[in-house]
Amino acid sequence: MSVAVSEGPSVASSIRTDAPPAILLDKVNKWYGSLHVLRDVSLQVATGERVVVCGPSGSGKSTMIRCINRLEQHQDGRIVVDGTELTDDVRALDAIRREVGMVFQSFNLFPHLTILENCTLAPIWVRRMPKREAEDLAMHYLSRVKIPEQANKYPGQLSGGQQQRVAIARALCMKPKIMLFDEPTSALDPEMIKEVLDTMVGLAEDGMTMICVTHEMGFARQVADRVVFMDRGEVVEQGVPDQVFNNPSTDRFKAFLSQILRGH
Amino acid sequence: MSDIPLNTSVSGVPEAAPRQPPALSTGPVAWLRANLFSSWLNTAVTLALGYLLVRWAISFVDWAFINAIWSVPDNQTQACRALKASANPGACWAVITEKHRFILFGTYPYEEHWRPALVCVLFTSLYVVSAMRRFWRWELLIVWAVTLVTIGVLMWGGVFGLSYVPQERWGGLPITLILATFGLAFAFPLAILVALGRRSSMPAIRILCIAYVELIRGVPLISLLFMASVMFPLFLPEGVNIDKLLRAQVAVILFAGAYLAEVVRGGLQALPKGQYEAADALGLSYWQKTGFIILPQALRLVIPPLVNTFIGFFKDTSLVLIIGIFDLLTAGKTAIVEPAWQGFGVEVYIAVSVIYFIYCFAMSRYSQNLEAELNRHRRR
Question: Which domains are seen in chain B, by residue range?
Fold first, then answer.
């Protein structure tokens, strides 16, 4: 989990301040039973902004990102994605999920479908794209994540890194406006982390709006416009990577950073 | 480093000649030694059981083939009775020769027996065609519809110059196949809906499905059949009379549905949550998610218990005898009621068992192939 990304020049920012925010969280609260897992979380992500969320396990960062496409439901506060507020309205939710791609820690590819079918299923059935066109699109993104030759294999025949790249391609095939990454490299062997992070850097270079939960600080330095540190369900500190990493202003973030750096 | 072959050890030790496994660790002799003669106790057990097995097999061959009588003239069963009482008994297959058409087709008019015979052939061909994966297309549903209509026409008649045969006269193997085929063809989709309903987030649907499963499962099939045949007509308005076979059929469907629903639910629960989440995150609707992602995987997981239940229900159709429907087993039983043929039950039951076995064993073998085929993606 060390700094696997080659420390290239940081990716130029592509924030568009003129557009309305892509994602807005306003005093979001969530409880699991009596456990308060999100406490007044407020976060605003501009179109084209890349945000890295980090924090110790159990800090609520995964829960927060999963609330954005309502895999988890928040109980208090507002979440507005791409101008649409998340409510019980199923149609609004479907519209949001079409525009928000997600990559999971455990890949969650569909094991009974080939790589190509994994990538074309949603474009064909959700976007109503003709099959031919969906396949061309899938091959385009599979080439982009550098595994077009695996298109007719099943997920079980691929390595973890390859599977995660397929998962990224699958999400991209829906042409989302926003990409959510939930610890995309945490389940991978060290030698496979780099190939996945490189793919994500490429995505950042194209100006994709991204929220990424990760502990890859090298990745954060290279691509993030902003780093958000969460602990015990709260946003504790946030700022430009160089600034917050070099001068963390809270003790909790200091402790977390020293732990991460000592660990490697 | 790049041109070191994979099999060579990195330390540079020269590779040893490939080693053979120790002698007598493979092959049939080794297998016998490991499994049957590994100790003096095992050897003794093997020999004792082997002796009993051989003796039993010899007397069975004697009884079933060597001493057997294959036919008798005009229901004259004295020869059979004499043989049965003798010191060296033999089977009287004459009962099968004489009664096989009754066992297979019940009280269906004798000169029209070609019709139920054709029905059995149609059913069996339908199974074979449906079993082949290359025919798994939408057109198969049309084939099913056409075949089932044809079967109905053949059994009832009354059109195309076929004489009308009332349902009370149907019997034997066609009844068993009708009950089993319609039963499972309707129970399976019902079971999928109920299994999905039990996991629904809507309380009314969930409670309804739980109530259905628990009520049906808590009652023996026999009492359900009894209710269908005796109690159900009491609630119907006067003059309305639903066919007895249809009532039994509905009872079988409801019963099989409840059991299959629990099997399917097992498959649904075995799927990792991530599959549901990935489908949700891609924006698939509930039915798209269920149809493309969840059910294909869940059903593959439960092929063994599913087929187990199928086989169980194929045989459970024989319970309709208690409401007076002549299925294969009942027809066999009735065949030996006649005084001349009383006492030859063993032969008849063996013959009936063989028919059941053929269908059940075919199902079992087929499911094993299907499982291997459909789970190919899990092999690396």
Answer: 31-62 (no CATH), 176-379 (1.10.3720.10)
